[in-house]
Amino acid sequence: MRLIIPLAITFTAGMIMILNFFVPHQPFRFLGENLQEWYLIVASGAIFLGAMNLMHVHFRKIKLKLKNWKYSPVTIIGFLVMLVLGLIYGVTEGRPFNYLFMNMVAPMGATMFSLLAFFVASAAFRAFRASNWRATLLLTSAFLVMLGQVPIGAMIWDKIPLIKVWLMSIPNTAGQRAVMIGAAMGVVSTSLRMIFGVERSWLGGTD
Amino acid sequence: MNWEILGIWLGALVTLCLYSFLYRDNPFYKFAEHLFVGMSAGYWVIYQIENVLIPNWWQSMVPSEGGFNWIWIIPGIFVLFMLARMVPKIAGLSRLSLGMIIGSGAGLNMVSFFQTNAMAQVKGTIFSVASGSVWSIFSSLVLVVGVVSGLIYFFFSKAHTGVVGKAANVGITILMVAFGASFGYTIMARLSLLIGRCQFMLEDWLPTIPRLLGIGG
Amino acid sequence: MADIIEKLGKLDRRIIFVLIALAVIIPISFDLILPNPVGAEPSRDLYDYVDALPEGSNVLVSFDYDPSTMPELQPMAEALVLHLFMKNVNIVGMALWPQGASLGQDAMSSMADSLGKAQYEDWCNLGYKTGGQIMIVRLGSSISAVFPTDMDNVPWSEIPMLRNITALESFSLIISLSAGDPGIIAWVMMAGDRFGVPIGCGCTAVSAPTLYTYLQTNQMVGMLGGLKGAADYETLVGIKGGQAVRGMAPQSVAHLVIILFIIIGNVAYFSQRKKGGAR
Amino acid sequence: MKSLSAYAIFLLLFTAGAALADNADPPESVVTEAAEELHVLRAVDIEASDTPEDAGGSVSLTWGMETVGTLPDSLGIMRSDPSGGEELIATLPVNIVMYNDQSADNGTEYSYWIVSYLGGTVEACSDRAAAVSSAQWIYKGRIGMMIILFLMSAIIFYYIESGKKGKELYIREIAGLEAVDDAVGRATEMGKAVLYIPGIADMDDIQTIASIVILGRVARKTAEYGASLLVPTSRSVVMSVSQEVVKEGYIQAGRPDGFNKENIQYLTDDQFGYAAGVDGIMVREKPAAIFLLGTFYAESLILAETGRSVGAIQIAGTAMPSQIPFFVAACDYTLIGEELFAASAYLSREPKLLGSLKGQDAAKLFFIILIVVGVIAATVGDYWSPLKSVAEFLRKLVTVN
After folding, report:
1. According to a count of CB atoms within 10 Å of the terminal CB, is the N or C end of chain D lower?
2. C13 domain-assigned
3. Best interface-test mutation with A: which of C5, C6, C16 has the largest number of A CBs within 10 A?
């Protein structure tokens, strides 16, 4: 019983979604459209669980004086400041919530994102070494494409940009397609296992 | 108090703190990281309330033109089931909500992945290879052979020996060339992100220093 | 010597970080401009195609982007419009994205002012219309039915340059400056495949890898990919110190630094292997 | 009868006038000015049809506008039902050329026409068009996909059943998954943690679902070995499910006391906020093994490079084609695309799950045959036309609208 009701809900929801794709007739259309909204709502309502967990973890850290507990108040204060300002002033432009978002949260996101520029460099330096046949291929094609991207490539040999275009449009397309078609098979199989309850370990049931 | 300059300074300080991570973990990074996690978590709570819970749920259930749509009580109940996790005695109820989310997700993903990843890609691969110059015939062949042998590489129930093994080897070769090309092409796009941050620091923030010190007006 | 090379192979990644940072900061601070030779690339293909258009032909430019992708696509729009005007080609602008219409207006009117081109005689902007693919199919039978007026509600009949334009087939080329969906794929599938109008494309660097397939099948005559594509076009048209060419300098220098490091890494790796070192 | 003849005369005059205007070919400017005075633009070529492939209750209208004449202020969509009742169903700006009437009853024949308003009065009126709305049971353009999907599902279920019956199934070695035991074992020996990152997507994403199932298997192993398992998540629902599966893993391994709920924590929904937080955990906890399985976007390399720098064994896997190259470059093992979805079956070794892998292979074989036959047919079809139609048929089969 503990498993049957959740599994029945999973099955029903999954089948509604699949039928909604093929059948425009009622009631599938109504159910399908509503279900898409509903699960968004449930997933976003769950954010309170996450928020509670975050607070719990950091208050516990402070209480037990765990490693780096001195930084936990920073998280707690940051969280509460945003929450309270958002609730009091709303999210419109020019209000404190939006001000803090634009001047602190957004720049921090952009900065973390820009770390990628450094990390692609160090990853390329370390990984692109001709240590075996496959690594050599990876290295060569990356190197040719990189050269094709900058003026110096065409200066070395005027065919390099052409090679770049060929690599991008033929092997790159072929590789991406193979990955995508293969992944789709995996998705179909995984979805079927979930919808029909073949795989139920996520519910805490082995069989 | 000049709010604009204060904003630039706040942005610049957290930027520098986060960049310090490139050297090593340090108190400045720890501070900025904890601040970032806390502030963004707070931001997302407000975001979900303002952009999903109020418009998609509350306003559908209690429309501004009056009335009450009973059917929207259902997602509300599922949200409550989800939050029941906080009370150990009834935590099991959350499985009902999880079942709904996982079921919908699995069903939706199954058809959409099959449509865009399988059907559309197969369609793109069915074409005549015998057109154009020798070079373009060769290219078309590489494309078709690449897709087919790439798929053979993913075979799980056949040992990679004999013909299957050879085909799978061709497949992984094409995949490696593809990954290399894709990596090489993306480096440039990634660099432009850093350029954006550097421009902020050099062109927005740096000029405020002399202004604050009262030099150069 | 071999010792130094070996040490270089195990270089602390923080040294790479410092060099990357310098490679970006120095060109920005000194406003460096690097030469940008353009080889046989999709951007040259597009340039050549536009360059070969006869004087007085009509080109449709669709501005399918918004301010978030302006850094990459606006320089393309400006260079393309300038080139078309220099060739005395008539430009009809439109947009599949709501904010694209005014961005296109900016590009066309600023270039028209500098070259003395007149609105409604040499160029016009039909504005934005919803519908993506379906709308493009309708343009294939009649454009005036979809756009009875231009962006500023001037009726079709009062715009002289539109007299000899009826459907998509009236255009010698359609160029979509595309940041996503709806965009270039809709144009290729509907205007290109269905009505046989040549299609050109400008797109962001992130979406370029997937669009290369359309070049391979000749469904597009050429493509400008990301900032590099924009810089190529500026160079080909002959714009000195354009926005995109300037932006390319830090990218190119940092790119070179990375290429250099890959070479160093491999030299070190091989010299170590020759010595029979472990690993 | 009288009105009919009057109408006929009017029509005759009108056509004659139009023909005259066409033939006379006076200077252009004269025509436009005269026309402007003559009439207000009206809608032409009006077409009404049942909106295809819907649940009914909707009729689609399209039309064009005349181009020479005075522009009206607005357009009115008029509708009449069989009882003769006429109503104005919508008023639209003049530059609109399509409309969906969502208020139609199924099975009723409506007649539609469009009037042009200028200064608040009706100045021109279009021809009429009629349509009946109805509901459809299937999207015609999706039948091909439905057949193929049904076939695939049938094949996969067939092999799941044959797996259940205990048929011996061979599965090739997947290096990244063989390494799981080693990685967990090494972490135990070194007395360090295992870090599991289930991607940044929410629980409705199929890759997250696959990742959570794998997390269950990994949790069982860490419980058996006695290593500690850290799971930071970027979604609340993923956190909840993770707590559930990890707890279950520890119970199954007979070590329920080893489960520590605090180790599975939510950080933030923010993509880069999460990346910053996980980077912090990596450099401070220095885990010996890191799993990056699920949906990843740009943060993939930020996480993988930091993990690399702390010296952990890294096993990554995703079906995002754009992120795989970064994992290949920065991780020790990478599960590419489909291998991620095969992982749970591989790790559990349950016969029915292994059967589903065999079913996937059969499905892939089907597509390979489809591609090969299609390419041969299309190529030979250039020279021998009957085969061309075979290629066309196959392309149509895989087209989804």
Report:
1. N
2. yes
3. C16
Query: Does A207 score more than 80 pLDDT?
Result: no
Distance from the B115 Cα atom to the nearest Cα atom in chain A, whole angstroms: 9
Q: What is the pLDDT of residue C157?
A: 82
If you ran DSSP here, which 8-state letter would residue B22 be given?
G
CB D270 within 8 A of CB A105: yes
Nearest-CA residue of chain A relative to B93?
A6
Residue type, B37: V
Provide CATH 3.40.50.720 ranges for chain D.
169-349
pTM of the model: 0.84
pLDDT for the residue numbered C1: 61
Give the tokens for residue A30.
């109504």
Do both C126 and C8 map to the same domain? Answer: no
In angstroms, the separation between the Cα of residue B103 and the nearest Cα of chain C is: 28
Closest partner residue to D136 among A25, A48, A206, by Cβ? A25
Q: Which chains does C contact via 3+ CB–CB distances below 8 A?
A: A, B, D
The ipTM estimated for the assembled molecules is 0.86
Do C117 and C215 fall into the same domain? yes
Same domain, C228 and C252: no
**Does any CB of chain A come closer than 8 Å to the CB of residue C32?**
no
The predicted model gives B97-101 an average pLDDT of 92
Put simply, the chain A residues between 43 and 62 with a CB less than 8 A from any chain D CB are 43, 46-51, 53-54, 57, 60
Domain CATH for C115: 3.40.50
What pLDDT does D32 receive?
Answer: 46
* Cα D298 from chain centroid (whole Å): 21
Q: Look at domain D169-349 and name its CATH class.
A: alpha beta
Please give the interface size between B and C, counted as residue pairs whose CB atoms are below 8 Å apart: 52
Element (H, E) at A201: none
Indicate whether C18 and C145 sit together in one domain.
Answer: no
> Which residues of C are less than 8 Å from D68 in CB distance?
157
Closest-CA distance of chain B to residue C123, Å = 33
Co-location of C78 and C141 in the same domain: yes
Query: What's the structural domain count of chain C?
Result: 2
Q: Which residue has the higher pLDDT, A97 or C180?
A: A97
Q: Which of C215, C217, C256, C257 to mutate to test the interface with B (most CBs of B within 10 A)?
A: C217
Do the Cβ atoms of A172 and C42 come within 8 Å?
no
Query: Mean of the per-residue pLDDT values for chain C?
Result: 86
Residues in A touching B35 (Cβ below 8 Å): 74-75, 78, 104, 108
Which CATH entry fits the domain spanning D26-132: 2.60.40.10, 2.30.30.20, 3.40.190.150, 1.10.10.10? 2.60.40.10
**Predicted pLDDT at C98:** 80
pLDDT of C2: 63
Average pLDDT across chain D, whole number:
85
**Regions in chain D scoring below 50 on pLDDT:** 1-2, 4, 10-36
Instruction: Please tell me whether residues C154 and C222 are part of one structural domain.
Output: yes
Q: What is the per-residue DSSP string for D334-353? A: EEETHHHHHHHHHHH--HHH
Residues paired with D113 in a beta bridge: D78
The pLDDT value recorded for residue D17 is 45
Asked if residue C124 and residue C65 are part of one domain, the reply reads yes
How many A/B residue pairs have CB atoms within 8 Å?
Answer: 373
Which of C130, C157, C158, C193 should be substituted to probe chain D, the one whose Cβ sees the most D Cβ atoms within 10 Å?
C157
Q: Token digits for D380?
A: 């030979």
* CA max distance for chain D: 104
Tens-place pLDDT, residues A75-105: 999 999 999 999 999 887 788 998 999 899 9
Minimal C-alpha gap between D103 and chain B (Å): 20
Strand pairing report for D109-118 and D121-125: antiparallel
- Interchain pair B183, A142: CB under 8 A: yes
Structural domain that includes position C7: 2-32+247-274
Mean pLDDT confidence for B143-172: 93
- State the count of interchain CB pairs (< 8 A) between A and C: 100
Torsion sign, CA atoms C36, C38, C43, C47: positive
What confidence score (pLDDT) does residue A190 get? 93
> What's the pLDDT at B215?
64
- Please state the domain extents for chain A: 4-112
Q: Do C24 and C46 have their domain in common?
A: no
Full 3-state SS string of B66-135: CCCCHHHHHHHHHHHHHHHHHCHHHHHHHHHHHHHHHHHHHHHHHHHHHHHHHHHHHHHHCCCCCCCCHH
